[in-house]
Amino acid sequence: MTTPGSLSRPTGVPLRLRIAARCAVAVATPLARLRPHRLRRVLGFARRGARPASYAEAKAARDAVLAVSLRCLGPQGCLPRSAAVALLCRMSGSWPTWCAGVRVLPPFGAHAWVEAEGEPVDENLPPRYFRPLMTI
Hints:
The protein has helices at about 15-30, 35-45, 55-70, 70-75, 80-90, and strands at about 50, 95, 95-105, 110-115, 120, 130-135. The strands form two sheets. Strands 5-4-3-6 form a four-stranded antiparallel sheet, with helices on one face. The chain is of the alpha+beta class. The protein has five helices and six strands; from the N terminus they run ααβαααβββββ. It has one domain (about 15-135).
């Protein structure tokens, strides 16, 4: 999974949210190593009973994950980052749409991200730049 470069580390994330984000990253890191069908099953189970996340909730979760994890900040960190954001949202009772897909324009590249309210959360790319192949 790739993104066009590393991200900047957010500041000002409350301590309580940082602690929860560390837990989400600790769970998401081994999940990122699973085969796609197993990852889909695990995240689908985690999603059960959750209400849809708002864009603000998903953005706050993404900022918290980026604030606590250097692995998720890096260019190869999109899969653990997106899983951690989804799990962190789930801790508060909501669930963003988790997506994994490919770049529409050449060269080929895979990417994972979360969407809320029909929009990718804090992805600095043009709309429809990625085509989702798997959504949860």
